[in-house]
User: Fold this.
Amino acid sequence: MSGATPSSATSGQQTLPKIIKVLHPESERFFRETAPSKKVLAEERKKFLILCSGIRCTTTSENQKMLKCARCEKAWYCSKECQVKHWPDHKKICHKNEDPGIRKLWTNLMTNPSLKTFLQLCLIFDFDLLSTNASPQKPRMANVHIGLEPSDISHVFNIMMGQDPPSNPQEVEGMLQINGIHSDIHGSITPSPNRMEIWRTQREQLTSAGFPNAHIIILEIMKGNDNQVIAVTLPIDHVVLKTAATPEPFEYRSALTGKTTYAPMNAQTCLEYINKDIRADRHNRYKLRAPMAAADFAIIQEACRAAEGDQLSPAGGAFRYKLDHESTYEKLIIVK
Assistant:
């Protein structure tokens, strides 16, 4: 939680509040007790498979060494042949990667058992997978907007107050955040042939493993406004589905007042839990922190300074939604 007190101002300069950050004394202990251990996280990362980006290719890194596009560093191929066949489509979005670590950050999130569970819960509630009408044989898609945000929330607050972003953004530590998930709950989007091939392969694998009724969500991971997308499938674990059937509320305790509040478990609160848990990882156990870039601050600035009714970019709109719906930002209080 953060509070702010007016700071002294020199003549002719804008008075900006002074940021005072307040943390609950038990927050560090709670994180240590609930977060997966470093050993568990390392073991899960070793199991993560990379899927070939080639047209209708379902080869993974399980038994094939993958080649990475040297230019954009976001496409992977099982062979030179797959890369050549995919080039007519890939060249439209292939450009020098200004954010080479984003795929690794997303991989680290997806191999974190706790964060992955809450992402599944979010999708279960969004798609109403607890309904008897929810068929596991139906492909479902969701767009996941991610971004880097300063781990020190005072940077966001200062931009809200009209201050310009830092002149050297790369010196500011950022953390991965999920700004929004747009689930195609009405099935209005038809997956591309490549996405459908990935889904069918995953469907066959789960059926062969004895899970014919497992739901599979196709996720399109998007960062910024450069139209580059990472496509992955996320099977919904039957244990997580049972957890969603008997949800327990989230419990929060104020660092200022000590007051305990409860929030029902739903898609929004599960998403907020993911972001808060990443924020609480101050020693980067999850390996979800990376230097900020000017483009990251530009998105935050666009969202913070938009007037009601302004047309925002996809990334700016996603971060604005996060600002408006997460309780973290409600606690940016001006103390008179």
In short: The two ends are 17 Å apart (CA to CA). The chain has two domains: 2-34+101-334, 49-97. The CA atoms of residues 2 and 153 lie 8 Å apart.
